[in-house]
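Cross-check.
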Amino acid sequence: MLFFACLIVAAVFSARISSRLGVPVLLSFIGLGILVGSDVLNLFYFDDAVLTKRIADIILIFILFVGGFQTRKSSLRLVAGPSMLLATVGVALTAGLLGLLVHLVTGLSPVRSFMIASIISSTDAAAVMMVTRANPVRERVAATLEVESAANDPAAILLTIAFVELAAGKGGDPVRIALEMAWQFAGGVAFGFLASHASRFLFDRLDSDNRGYYYVLAIGMILLAYGAADLAGANGIIAVFFMGYLLGNAEFAGKQGVSNFLEGVSAFGNVALFLMLGLLASPRGFVHVWKEGLLLAALLVFGVRPLVAFLGTAGFRYGWRERLFIAWGGIKGAVPIVLATYPAAFGLDPEGTVFSLIFFAVLVSCLVQGTTLAPLARLLGLVVPARPRSPHSVELHSTRRSEIGLFEIHIEPGARATGRSIRDLGLPHDIVISSIVRDGRIILPKGGSVVETDDLLYALGPPSLVEATSAVLNAKDGPPDREA
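Predicted model, tokenized:
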């Protein structure tokens, strides 16, 4: 217990160091696990791939739920076509092209080649978001990468399971397999839809003074969605992702507190998952696969990913600089490493060769793409001014559904609200500024308080008015207009 406590604390602070150095946080967590593992300091021995898969499957439920929960409908609407095309057809095309190249170059059997390609076909949302949010790029480009990365894991999981079962001799008629995959996806979406509506119904009627019960209810409903979908032969991961997306874009009692709690659960899950995968990794095993790992990473990073990205964004009015950035932003991460435990769990990788191969290729992707994505954005001229971040969290916890919410409005440079007092902003009567964050300090606003550039205004009001109010305050010409 003491050992794991120290490991978790060390992982949290290593993440801060990684962020400052511009290194994907995945590398710091996995590196820490490798360091204390059996091949380096030998402080802890762990080699159970089956147990890793079981634990990882549970952790992924919450990680992918939060990925869906944090995907804004506005972002999805902005880039729905290209991002969802890359997250579905793009994943299948990546697996197909890469599998064919692996088969031709290495001579592995087609099924094993496509299995390896399917495992590493998805991108990592955490790694992508760390780069795009620390180094803001154009909204449309960042949203395309973020939504794609958040939504492409289910497709990779479906493909991996299909090819692992084929390699294990559990496959059958291709038509039956195709129908099963179609049901897994469609059924997952259906169960996610039902679970989201059932969750909203229960949250709005819980009416408890103990906010902890809302968090427990959230965990129960997420597991219920996964379990019900799995029992019906549908894909539970797809169910929880779409459940998260629908709940994240809906209003229900206790939403803000539930959001913060689940974000913490997801962060803990990421730390635990990466540390466990680091412990499972064997650097000695990399000696036998590093050439193949470099080849796999090179084929993917410099060949297949750019081709798929350029095809997936064709016809959507992206410039060549934006398409190049999207192509380079296909960073690999935790999900491929987790999926790399599936062959061992099915008895297909007794020596751990596939796991070591995928692990090494993911590390190469993180090092090469993760550390150069921000400089590439600057080189291509895609960087936009960074938005100030508040060190304070202001939230409104309600045990019942309310028409009033608490929202953050950023005053952009050149906004016509700049230099005006709050009483002169012409705010709608239903909007109240509850606090202002300026230079990391909270200011209690009064009528005569003057708004400055880069202020963060926390506004109480109906969601429909807040978005319009933000647009009016940040308009570039003329005084704020109450009628507008």
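The longest strand covers residues 432-438. The chain has 19 helices and four strands. Passed to J.P. for a second look.
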